[in-house]
Write a structure and sequence with these properties.
The protein has about 500 residues and is of the alpha/beta class. It has three domains: about 90 residues, Aspartate Aminotransferase, domain 1, CATH 3.90.1150.170; about 250 residues, 3-Layer(aba) Sandwich (Aspartate Aminotransferase, domain 2), CATH 3.40.640; about 120 residues, Alpha-Beta Complex (Aspartate Aminotransferase, domain 1). The protein is built from 16 helices and twelve strands. It is globular. Bound molecules: 4-oxo-4H-pyran-2,6-dicarboxylic acid. The site of 4-oxo-4H-pyran-2,6-dicarboxylic acid has 6 residues, from loops. The site of 4-oxo-4H-pyran-2,6-dicarboxylic acid (HLD) has 6 residues, from loops.
Amino acid sequence: MSINPNQYKLSDRTARLTAQDLLPTTVSAGTETREFLQKVIDILLDYVKAVNDRNEKVLDFHHPEDMKRLLDLEVPDRGVTLQQLIEDCAVTLKYQVKTGHPHFFNQLSCGLDLISMAGEWLTATANTNMFTYEIAPVFILMENVVLTKMREIIGWNGGDSILAPGGSISNLYAFLAARHKMFPNFKEKGSSSLPSQLVMFTSDQSHYSVKSCASVCGLGTDNCVMVPSDDRGKMITKELERLIMERKKMGHIPFFVSATSGTTVLGAFDNLNEIADICQRHNCWMHVDAAWGGGLLLSRKYRYLRMAGVERADSVTWNPHKLMGALLQCSTIHFKEDGLLLSCNQMSAEYLFMTDKQYDIQYDTGDKVIQCGRHNDIFKLWLQWRSKGTEGFEQQQDRLMELAQYQVRRIKEQSDKFHLILEPECVNVSFWYIPKRLRGIPHDRQKEMELGKICPIIKGRMMQKGSLMVGYQPDDRRPNFFRSIISSAAVTEKDVDFMLDEIHRLGDDL
Ligand code: HLD
């Protein structure tokens, strides 16, 4: 059932009221407050139903100028009525892209896990900051339990972790801790405490946030060395070592290597054991950006196939809001060594982190981070983990991989219409669609250029029709190609077939 903004009617009396008539200003028993909130919940529940309905569109697309005309976005001088607010909520969801729809394959984070969503609702209602135990006691203890469990899964005893606002900031935390470990005086003295130029290394397929650390932290992006990758998108480890030695000869200090477990586009996994050996030989901090691939640590099968050696890292970024399906956002950064986060980031603000509090202040997490306040991203993950158990998460990871393999098989079975670019290591599937006029022609660079040109046209058509969302992009080696993602627990084999059939329907004539 579509969201129809006219179908949510408050009683005549409540409809005319404004927020001033609800709690906390009203002294009544809160009947109107309950009626208003229950109507909002009705809209949310109808949206959840629509998200899971394959007959529903994934999106109702309008160009920005048209969308502005469809919406009343004004923030007025005088507050509107409760009935208007209800309609505002319904209209907002009417035009929102249904990222939990089984035909949404567009982003690394897809799906709508209902338990995690229930957790997010509770989180919003509790509305607390996460910097001190005194205002978030239950949530802080949950963080402790879940993050300890995640470190155990990585393969560590002890250590420390924090939830951060996204994988990019998680990677930044790793960079800061690595520099602090090697140059503890940097915190007070700044760059004058450095004997020479610091250099970091990552593959040319890594997430751009790694390079951004070099810019944000004063190294300059020229000192983030992009190590070439092979045909499958994996860092060429021999090149890593050669480039480290080259910089050493220049008198620079290589100190940080960021390996990737699950690259954004191709879903490639770097060889962690080989990278760990090189880091050991050259005294570099080893970070693993497993923002995307980290979920596979929960699978006994894929953990060893893809991430053997992860326990040798000094830090690991792992985003439960991707493969594990926790609601946005939920990103974690883990450290093998305890105490570094605090000594690196602590500013000892006396108004928040008093040392004479009457409880164990190691539970005040706020001084470990660079951001003061932290959103509560734990409850939705904790509740989800309770609901599935670690075994349920393992089954979910294996199922997503099975579906991606199904897609690969279906692409190969229809090799007249689809061209698989490489055997995927994750749930990213990279492929071209071949329209009628280009079938049966040998695959060469010229043909690739043509196939690349039609990707944006098919994407435009799928958005106009609202039936499907799959992303496309070029990379260093090839023009535009499709990259589909299966990270939603809602997807079945039939949805994978729908994706390929729909691309064929939309692109056959191009
Ligand atoms: O950096 C990215 C983060 C996400 C996400 O959290 O869903 C890149 C992408 O998704 C992506 O889909 O390429």
